[in-house]
């Protein structure tokens, strides 16, 4: 049943729009790109804790885990090849983002999602059938290419097809599917670990074909966004799609604004150069900082290597995988909390509250491990073990309703029209780069820092919380093209950077561009 309502325009008027079934279905299908990403994140930590997998591909690590006293508890899994298995996906995703940027602009959002699905399927086949480390890494690289295309196209698709008033919630749907994918991977790992014969890891890696297939089928079934069609000159098709997704024939005002937004966007010949101009630095600084901070909360270190981490702390293999399932479930539930609260309590409040919660939980974990887990003996009794899992869940919950979804949402709604495409590319690239850094370095950091790894990440949480307190403005319920007037020009620091727009030698005052912009996130992908 379609819900009635209006989509707000940037100029302050309201466009008639219903929440139609085609919008809901399209968004659910598109967001399966997040499901695939999440499964890839969750499955790697599980299989790297399975003895048969280690024995086949990483025999040095396998011997360390089997022989008592041969190495520090914290250093059993410190192996560059093992970390490369996890991190190669993100380095490939970073590289693929540039090609995805061109494809999404030139051919539309649907073809990019379809390409992502194909990459995912081929990578899954290679991983599930891997005979040696090279085949395994090539499969992960192809999965990474899929991540690059999906992360570029899906958030754009969701923001462009959704009515403004539910844009935040539908964007977080992508993050929610990431968390569901992580949970699904943890459940699969827990089950396949019990398979006798040593081939359970193949099932874990092969089942990634399910979300890959869903994304591929979804890309074939969903409609292209009207923004993309108008951008490519298909005006009549764009208007027809707009009627379908808004559930009304009264789309002329919104359509005209789309056309005008497209015209202005095409005047921007060098979006990346434009991004570096003084007036765009606040958005650029915040987008880059949020991506770096998101990774330095330590969340991906926990989600990548949760079973390995719990094994390190003295949990049995089954108990480690079971604990990873619990943290995965908390991750999903807490992301749902964010969907319902982000447009009510605001972005800043969620980030600041979560900062306190993450800081305290990480410090307490560090104290417990410092007292109870030594290099060659683990004295983590059952009571303490359960307490550590509760603290990890407390930390994961705080991240999942704050830095997880908001690290993506805030950059997507703060860039002005002429730099939004370039801004999205920089956001994705920065995120994948630092995800790679953390994935490649975490097990080595665990070996050298020991329990101090949690103090390291808690220190970063403190820094990022002060950044939010003093430098991040609130963007709740503010149309995208009104950000300059209502947010940046009102901020104590960033208002100093707010000058007129300069596009190809012509000055367009901020108010004029605001008038001609489009609140539903029109985002022509950057010219490379």
TrEMBL record:
InterPro entries: MFS_dom, MFS_STP/MST-like_plant, MFS_sugar_transport-like, MFS_trans_sf, STP/PLT_plant, Sugar/inositol_transpt, Sugar_transporter_CS
PROSITE patterns in the cross-refs: MFS, SUGAR_TRANSPORT_1
The entry's keywords: Membrane, Sugar transport, Symport, Transmembrane, Transmembrane helix, Transport
Membrane topology, record value: Multi-pass membrane protein
Domain Major facilitator superfamily (MFS) profile: 26-476
Domain of life: Eukaryota
Entry keyword Transport: yes
Main location: membrane
Pfam families per record: Sugar_tr
GO CC, one annotated term: membrane
Stored Gene3D superfamilies: MFS general substrate transporter like domains
A single GO molecular function term of this UniProt record: monosaccharide transmembrane transporter activity
Location of this chain's protein in the cell: Membrane
Family: Belongs to the major facilitator superfamily. Sugar transporter (TC 2.A.1.1) family.
PANTHER family: IP12678P (PTHR23500:SF357), SOLUTE CARRIER FAMILY 2, FACILITATED GLUCOSE TRANSPORTER (PTHR23500)
NCBIfam families hit by this protein: SP (TIGR00879)
Protein name: Major facilitator superfamily (MFS) profile domain-containing protein
Organism placement in taxonomy: Eukaryota, Viridiplantae, Streptophyta, Embryophyta, Tracheophyta
């Amino acid at each position: 049943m379609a819900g009635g309502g209006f989509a707000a325009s940037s100029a302050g008027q309201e466009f008639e729009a219903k929440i139609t079934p085609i919008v809901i279905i399209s968004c659910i299908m598109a967001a399966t790109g997040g499901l695939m990403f999440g499964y890839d994140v969750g499955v790697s930590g599980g299989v790297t804790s399975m003895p048969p997998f280690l024995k086949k591909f990483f025999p040095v690590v396998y011997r360390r885990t089997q022989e008592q006293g041969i190495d520090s508890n914290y250093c059993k899994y410190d192996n560059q090849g093992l970390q490369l298995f996890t991190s190669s996906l993100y380095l490939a995703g970073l590289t693929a983002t540039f090609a995805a940027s061109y494809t999404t602009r030139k051919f539309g959002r649907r073809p990019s999602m379809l390409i992502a699905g194909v990459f995912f399927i081929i990578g899954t086949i290679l991983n599930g059938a891997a005979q040696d480390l090279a085949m395994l890494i090539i499969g992960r690289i192809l999965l990474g290419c899929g991540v690059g295309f999906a992360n570029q196209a899906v958030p754009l698709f969701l923001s462009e097809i959704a009515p403004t008033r539910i844009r935040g919630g539908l964007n977080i749907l992508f993050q929610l599917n990431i968390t569901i994918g992580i949970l699904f991977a943890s459940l699969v790992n827990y089950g396949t670990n019990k398979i006798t014969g040593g081939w359970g890891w193949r099932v874990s890696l092969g089942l990634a074909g399910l979300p890959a297939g869903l994304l591929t089928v979804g890309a074939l079934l969903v409609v292209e966004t009207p923004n993309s069609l108008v951008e490519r000159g298909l005006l009549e098709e764009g208007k027809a799609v707009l009627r379908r997704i808004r559930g009304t024939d009264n789309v002329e005002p919104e359509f005209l604004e789309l056309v005008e937004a497209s015209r202005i966007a095409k005047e921007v010949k060098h979006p990346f150069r434009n991004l570096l101009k003084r007036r765009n630095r606040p958005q650029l600084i915040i987008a880059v900082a949020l991506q770096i901070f998101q990774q330095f909360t330590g969340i991906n270190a926990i989600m990548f290597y949760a079973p390995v981490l719990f094994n390190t702390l003295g949990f049995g293999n089954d108990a480690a995988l079971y604990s990873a399932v619990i943290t995965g479930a908390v991750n999903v539930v807490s992301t749902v909390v964010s969907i319902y609260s982000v447009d009510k309590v605001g972005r800043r409040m969620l980030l600041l509250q979560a900062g306190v919660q993450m800081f305290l939980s990480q410090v307490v974990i560090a104290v417990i491990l410092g007292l109870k887990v030594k290099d060659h003996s683990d004295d983590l009794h059952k009571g303490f073990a359960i307490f550590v899992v509760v603290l990890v869940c407390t930390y994961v919950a705080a991240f999942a309703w704050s830095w997880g979804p908001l690290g993506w949402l805030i950059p997507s709604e703060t860039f002005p029209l002429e730099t939004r495409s370039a801004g999205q590319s920089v956001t994705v690239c920065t995120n994948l780069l630092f995800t790679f850094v953390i994935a490649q370095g975490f097990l080595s950091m665990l070996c050298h820092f020991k329990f101090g790894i949690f103090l390291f990440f808690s220190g970063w949480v403190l820094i990022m919380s002060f950044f939010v307190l003093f430098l991040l403005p609130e963007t709740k319920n503010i149309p995208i093209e009104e950000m300059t007037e209502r947010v940046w020009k009102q901020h104590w620091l960033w208002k100093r950077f707010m000058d007129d727009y300069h596009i190809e030698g012509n000055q367009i005052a901020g108010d004029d561009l605001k008038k001609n912009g489009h609140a539903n996130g029109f985002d022509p992908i950057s010219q490379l």
